[in-house]
Amino acid sequence: MARVYNFSAGPSMLPEKVLKQAQAELMEYGTSGQSIMEMSHRSPEFMAVAADTEARIRRVLNVPDNYKVGFFQGGATQQFAMVPLNFMTTGKADYLVTGNFSNLAAKEAAKFGQVNIVANSKDKNFTYIPDVHAIEYDKDASYIHICQNNTIFGTTFVDVPQVEGIPLVADMSSCICSKPVDVTRYGCIYFGVQKNIAPAGMAVAIIREDLLGKSAKGLTPEQIPTMMNYTTILNKDSMYNTPNCWNIYMTGLVMKYLEEDIGGLANMQKINEAKAKVLYDYLDSQTFFVNSVEHKYRSMMNVTFTSPNPDMDKKFCAEAAKAGFVNLKGHRLVGGMRASIYNAMPSEGVDKLVQFMEDFRKANA
Length: 365
Ligand SMILES: *Cc1c(COP(=O)(O)O)cnc(C)c1O
Description:
Elements (H helix, E strand, L loop, with lengths): L4 E2 L9 H9 L19 H17 L6 E6 L2 H13 L4 E6 L2 H10 L4 E7 L23 E4 L1 E2 L4 E2 L11 E4 L16 E5 L10 E6 L21 H6 L9 H18 L2 H21 L16 E4 L4 H13 L2 E2 L10 E4 L6 H18 L1
Parallel strand pairs: 1-12, 3-4, 3-5, 5-8, 8-9
Antiparallel strand pairs: 2-10, 6-7, 9-10, 11-13
Helix pairs in contact: 1-6, 2-6, 3-4, 7-9
The structure holds pyridoxal-5'-phosphate.
Pyridoxal-5'-phosphate binds next to helix 3.
């Protein structure tokens, strides 16, 4: 067996310790005589797994008691519709467009009401985040939506919009659990788990209780499709129907790993900052590879860069893959390269990548 350094933007690497535990428990979970994959979601064993996963998410992310935590299928993309369906009570919402996913979220929300794009960083190809204090927010907006970390462009919010009486909703798919977060600044945080936590196929939403039980203007709560109604699903502890049991279990294992092996998100942040620094310091030390993001807004998770031309990018990705550094090709919208260095990417993966980049530069400059 030879595991590679996988720089995929998602699905992405999982901690080896977690994979080994999942492997060890695959045939029989505890003394149940069954795999988690075979088990009734109503069984006491699985109910305990789900409760433990939620409790760990609450501890790891320091989620206050007046927030609910739920597990949803349909990925983060389904959340793009669930957010307006459940929260767009005034028929209006403010969206900051800072990349591909926030653009998709805004387009989806426009199906259910009036979306105001209050800021857009497309003018500089999404290489920066607009100043959130200089934005004129609509007083009548039901909520303000941001994508906290822009997976494709490699940018991240440093400060977030805070408007009295208007909840902030954030897509944190590609930065969740990379560092501590002040949940109280948000009305809703949602994330697909396949970037920084678990396998693909599930989203988690953390929602302040006072936002529940409502619906988009023009709809009653009963008219929201059942599986897209946060309140219905949360009232059933995410088990209105059969949930993604395997993913809930895997999410629990990763939360346990973050708590017990890493020692919490403050430690995770230190590790991630050190990893990102190695790569950005290298990028800043030479001119062959270029990262074009405004420094202040550089993502700690997704590091984008280009070589002198697209043919060289191709050559780089091919040679890197042969050397065991896979999935470095940038998103088709941006080209170039992208190294996603999520929580589970070991430091030596980044150290060795930088060494490989320098060797490549010397050979090709
Ligand atoms: C990957 C990603 C999505 C899409 O997630 P799916 O689970 O594939 O729907 C949405 N937002 C962000 C920020 C992402 O990184």
